[in-house]
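writing this on my phone so excuse typos. first protein, seq and then structure
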Amino acid sequence: MKGDTFQIFISMIIYMAVVLGIGLYFAKRANESSENYFLGGRSLGPLVTAMSAEASDMSGWLLMGLPGVAYWYGLSDAVWTAIGLAAGTYLNWLFVAKRLHSYSVIAGDSITLPDFFSNRFKEKNKVIMTISAIFILVFFTVYASSCFVTVGKLFNTLFGFKYQHMMIAGAAFVLFYTYIGGFLAETASDTMQAFVMIFALLTILIVGTSVAGGVLAVVENAKSIPGFFEFFGIASPTVVDGSQQIINGVPQFGEAGEYGLYTILSTLAWGLGYFGMPQVLLRFMAIRDAGELTQSRRIATVWVIISLGAAVALGIIGRSLFPTELLTYSESESIFIVLSSKLLPSALAGFVMAGILAATISSSDSYLLIAASAFSKNIYQHLIKKDATDKQVMNVSRIILVLISIIGIVIALDENSVIFTIVSFAWAGFGATFGPITIFSLFWKRTTREGAIAGMLSGGIMVFIWKLVLKPMGGIFGVYELLPAFIVSCIFIYAVSKMTDEPSLKIQEEFELAKEKSSEK
């Protein structure tokens, strides 16, 4: 390992040691009870709530997936995705946060999302809880695999280590400190990592723009590529045998593709996913005081806008500085690594690229913990062993953590996996399964248990049908699967709720109480 590379390696190892220290620090408190382990005892402050929510949400996708899209296809696809996500972030914090926090306390002091849905509709046979837990297990396993792919690509690109070995090592590291520290370790480290991520993005943005000759030079280069710097067009790299063609040192592009209104609406639909993201919704439930959510919303929105904007810009800058460096879509997701390693001093590059680790760790720990809690609390304790002690629940949770990690590793074994593609599928799954029912549960008193079940099943199943069966047909079916699945779920919730008996008086009274409580703060 060369001297510069060794310095980068040491910087990243030091960073990982700090994260591990956080897990060990919170281990004792986390093990006091399952509420502490899974929800931190509802003790989060506004800064930690905001920063941990956004860091856990963005993952390595922010530093690798999104810049990769901008590097490969240009501005439109990346920027419309970013706009949709920024709008979704703000609206979720504005409308859902306070109501969910109040309602989760009133509805049996729920500490997981399946808990809340089940308690909201006063279930006896726990059908909603089981369906919720199963979908969380499925989609978070896929989500965790995308994080493992990120780690593998990072260390493979930087140090030449075998992708599979590094991917497994990264998964083992995340598993270990989530295993011992639980939700408190996760949120504390996520907060620190949110700062690392935005520092990394802004550092490379400033340095990259300067080296490229300034903003005007970057824009001029982008405009020279057909469709690359357009809101309503998209670049079309000329690919031969899987790689972009290079002639006389110049990457080749075909004619610009169209990026019409239908495609824009499809891309903006990414924002709908926020209403069903368990890792974000859980933070709303965990804050110590709902009155502090306004401050959290402002922090989260500013962080998201800056981070997404910088990530998109890095892809454009990367195409200007290193136009022939990355010749496949999968490789393009390494543009942040290339920029960092080639533009910064080694020690600083190591710290900046720790931002990728930060993004990856902050998401994968959330995914693993929520998926484990979905099984241990909602299936094991409520269905398999109803008299399970707190200690037994936590032990089962840790077993599930290991199993989910193993499955995620198997999914991530292919080093040609595209992070953006994996994340987009899991994002659609959560958005369509939980987004509509979250909104209807919080804001429509007439929502029934039967409507909730129909909405969750139809939304989750439609994601698979649209992605695997309809989308390959192209044309009008080429839309991102989240949009049609979200709409189908809403239709089923409304129609089935109207066709079934009104909720009981107790459910309606709790709804009004939650509404009143959330408006007071």
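second protein below, same order as before
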Amino acid sequence: MKMSPDDGSLKNTHPKQGSLFEGASSFEVPELPAENRSLLPVWDRALTHRLRVLLHTAPLHELRSGDSRRDPELRHYDSIALTMKVFDLIIDSAGLDREIDRDRVEKELKPLLTQMDVAAGLAPDPSRHDAMVDRVLGGLRNDANRRRPFEEVYTDFEDDLSAQPRKLEFRILVDYHHPSGGTVLRLSNEAINLYLNALELDIEDAQAAAEAVVSSQLLRGRFDEAVQTARNARWQSLRFAEKVSAIIRETRRDLSRVDWREAVPKLLEEALIHLDTRLTIEQNIINAANERLEILDQGDSAASAVAEVSRLIRDCRLRHVELHHQLMGARNVFLDEQARQSFSSVPLTPHPNLLAGILDPVLRLGRKDSKTVTDDVFPSFFGGQAPSVLSLSDLVPWLLRPRRESPQLEVEVRGTDLAAGGIDRARFHPADRARVDELLSELGGPVTLSVLIARLRESGASPAAVELTTLTALHAFAPDHAESLPLRVERLPQTFSVSGFYGDDLTLSPGGVENDGGE
């Protein structure tokens, strides 16, 4: 081979075609001339990618280096070994009804922690095990930085070789609220790839690679290894389904956050092609496994391994069939949400970040200061508990919808049966009624409702008597038509809250007036 002087391309000038594949002795790679060495990139983009891959292991190295800095009674525990067990537990339980939570992690790690105690010559201690589990989970969740993403700074090089500092953010372990209740632990995609040795592959490529390896291992009779690879393929199927489900969930939540113009249609098209290929390959793997099972003896350990491979791949195939139906209806979800959200009101100001902007600052306060804040704001979180009769936020979008043609129907108009309202005194105890009547008859001058209720409480009156007094005052403030009342009631600008009633305070004066129903 020699370098062409005009375009710098490599041309094979060896007289014998195919000598490149016939032996190393018939082909030598010449050294590039000095004037052409500048054509090679000084920094390849692949180096940046591999650098980012290595940085994902930084939290694990930090966790391992902290083994020697922990309390003396915890230094004999191997945090990396415990971390790998946590990864395995979470991945193995993914997609099942019962996922991993903190209590189950401690239960599964207890045998390992006990053996580490025995190796160090120490008696097992449950409190020490509990502290070590918290250390491991805290290091994986980044508890030291309030569970924010890990940040690693590295140097990247542009095309002109200018050095640019960049920051990589990622997570390892996150808490997830399970639909059945409670909090479970889940790994991020970076942690899953780190565990499955597939950091350089995306979900689709990693799944295709795993299934190809399963086929190869079945052909070569490496059945035990094929089981583990099939488990990896099953996990990649779960991740692929979650990737599509996350897009649909985000579309239903806020259509503006999803790129349905270019990115999502392209992803859906590629996903359908990917599923079509996967279903064919998975069926071939199942057929190959069934053929192996016909040859192997039923009691053979290899037969059990092949049967497990067949079960796992069948599970992958079932999930892909379900995902195919979901992909086929994804565009309809987009159209439905576009029609629904087009009339939804958009807030003029963004909502605050409740975790970073509100909860974290309060948690950093002392107990005394934080109690002052929570005591002041908690009543505002609940407010009045009136029954939900009308929602204005739902009414306005409903009124702005396009008009629909309504069928012509004759509806009988019936008159409204109106009845006078009042206080049902019969439901109160006679003693409470007598006490309230006596209290109101003894009024010698104007008195506020809040002061009157305070007197009742000091005298040991029951809550029912307090409620009847409040209802009597409210009824006197807004009486029925032509009703003679023993009190005159006026509203004050100050407010009061008692016995479930909240509103403006009232001034009660003795002396009945005849209400004529006027304003």
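The beta strands are 2-3, 10-11, 150-157, 163-170, 173-177, 183-187, 447-448, 484-498, 501-514. thats all i got for now
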